[in-house]
Amino acid sequence: MTKIIGLTGGIASGKSTVTNYLRQKGYQVIDADQVVHDLQAKGGKLYQALVSWLGSAILNEAGELDRPKLSQLIFSSQEYLAKSSQLQNAIIRQELADRRGQLAKTEEIFFMDIPLLFEQDYADWFDEVWLVYVNPETQVERLKQRNGYSQEEAKQRLASQMSLSQKCQLADKVIDNSGDLKQLQAQIEQQLKGLEG
Questions:
Q1: Sign of the C-alpha dihedral computed for residues 11, 14, 17 and 21 taken in this order
Q2: CATH code for the domain defined by 1-27+107-197
Q3: Is residue 10 within 8 Å of residue 167, measured between CB atoms?
Q4: Is the Cα dihedral 31, 35, 40, 41 positive or negative?
């Protein structure tokens, strides 16, 4: 029986680090952000849907989606955020379901990294949900370093997501990424043992 583990966290919580480690250990990981990236590539299903909705103003000179411009536009109002979610979610959910079905045929254990796992009601897809946790102050600092955001922009991004403390209550397992890489890897190893046992 295949075990499918959902992996989630908040922006800048360190999910990518966990995902990379799992891949190094030989596990397959479906990365929802990568799936979205593929669908938003020129000619992809999301690309077509977004251009139909927002017009060619969201494209760069090469005719590809101008991500910063698109992101700024979508986050500029609740109405745009809601419409964007509605438009994109159905397409993304179908693609993720297809990829999940494919991997379930060949893998005993695999992971799906979905940032908005709880917000978009994916929890019932999984045998377990693992949450990568860091405190909000660390998230803000990492966002400022990684994306060059101001304090205000970083807090705004965090405010647009469900808080990690709320997600902790919903997750089956919590991996605390407040420490160093060694501590993080030790926690992942412990969870993997539990899965394979």
A1: negative
A2: 3.40.50.300
A3: yes
A4: positive
What tokens appear for 33 in the block?
């952000």
Q: Binding site residues, as ranges?
A: 12-17
Q: What is the pTM of this model?
A: 0.84
β-strands 109-113, 3-9 pairing: parallel
Question: Where do the domains of the chain lie?
Answer: 1-27+107-197, 34-98
Helix, strand, or coil here: 65?
Answer: strand
Report CA 24 to chain centroid distance, whole Å. Answer: 19
Query: Which residues line the annotated binding site for ATP?
Result: 12-17
DSSP 59: B
Beta bridge partners of 174: 131
Please write the tens of the pLDDT for every residue from 61-93. Answer: 999 999 899 988 998 889 998 999 889 888 999
